[in-house]
Amino acid sequence: MCADDDLLIAAAAVIIIDQNDRKKARKSRKRRFWVRPSLKSGRAKYSANNFMNDLILDEVDKLNLEYRCGTGFRNFFRMTSSDFETLLSLIGPRITKMDTTFRKAIPVNERLAVTLRFLATGDSYHSLMYMFKISKQVISAIVPEVCDALINALQDYIKMPENESEWKEKANEFNEKWNFPNCVGAFDGKHIAVQAPINSGTEYFNYKGFFSIVLFAVVDANYNLTYANIGCQGRISDGGVFNETKFKKSLEDNTMNLPSPCKLPGRNKSTPFVFVADDAFPLTCNIMKPYAGTQEKGSMKRIFNYRLSRARRVSENTFGIISSVFRILRKPILLEPKTAKKVVLAIVYLHNFLRKHSKTLYNLNGAFDVDSSVTYPTDSGDGLNNIARVPRRSATDAQEVRNELAEYFISPQGRISFQYD
């Protein structure tokens, strides 16, 4: 054995001894406190229960016994106290902790409260620590756990139609509200900003110039999500995310139980039931997207693009509603992608839950599109040159379906009066 080997062995031995000494020092070092004195005394003085009870006092108009919009509890938690109690009854057993000899467990209502406030504002754990008197380390464990519990408890609030009658009901709603027959859903993707994941390179860096994960969602005519896929890295386009979903496979395998094609009023050809999307997605017999390029005013293709836009904007509006309520989505989520995925999925379930339970408060006037007497959309006239999109090659059958719908929209049975005034 040479001298160099002896030196290496000696150096390794010194390193091992030093590491062992540090471990012993850490073990022998006593913990200063289990709970910070400022937080412990603060929780005794400023109980979260008392705080929430104060907010509830603003919520009920004692003279009219009605909920008042814009009151404290709803502004703070983005829901009424009754919705809060409903959620608490659903997830309480899943997030309850036992008291120990060292300290009392944080009550379930405070665990839910700190999570909802985090989703509503996107405040840092440090900020929430001083507000709720709970350490940031504990909050970092509470938020994912409560999000998991919400996802499990609210599973039935996001559900794809299972049979033809349920799909036809979705189609009737689209036709009545947005004047697009045989449409059973609108889908789109949204980039959720996150902090740059460790050692991720450009995996999560999207074409918009920030790091993100992608939310792909299918929305019905009432702004409810019927399918959601979350977590794909931001460098993947909306179409690329769609290609990897179970939704696409089910659509291609005809296992979605869509109704059989039917004839539209006054038409001779049968038209399949379709989803509407933008140009990022492929044109197929069951997916309709706009005609490419700038179309002549009043032309059949331009009218089709307008009618498709009327139906497709429900997906865009749904993303906007969710972001306006749960404002953590308006800033980069300072969590790893795995945890950020749980947060976004919990928000999606809460959206459908509140759409069902708080229609008068969550669905405020002015938050949704309504029809009005407007003229057919015209060119902007801003002096900018319109750059036509390059059309993609699509299957002949899919193009025939789109043309059939476009012809129906200009027929006496399919036209809309205010569209042509």
UniProtKB/TrEMBL annotation:
Which Gene Ontology MF annotations are present?
A: hydrolase activity; metal ion binding; nuclease activity
| Chief localisation class | nucleus
Q: Name one Pfam family in it.
A: DDE_Tnp_4
Database matches in InterPro entries:
HARBI1-like (IPR045249), HARBI1_dom (IPR027806)
Question: Which compartments does it reside in?
Answer: Nucleus
Specify the DDE Tnp4 domain's residue ranges. Answer: 188-352
Q: Its GO CC terms?
A: nucleus
> Which cofactor is essential here?
a divalent metal cation
Instruction: Tell me which UniProt keywords the record has, alphabetically.
Output: Hydrolase, Metal-binding, Nuclease, Nucleus
> In which family does this protein belong, per the annotation?
Belongs to the HARBI1 family.
Full protein name: DDE Tnp4 domain-containing protein
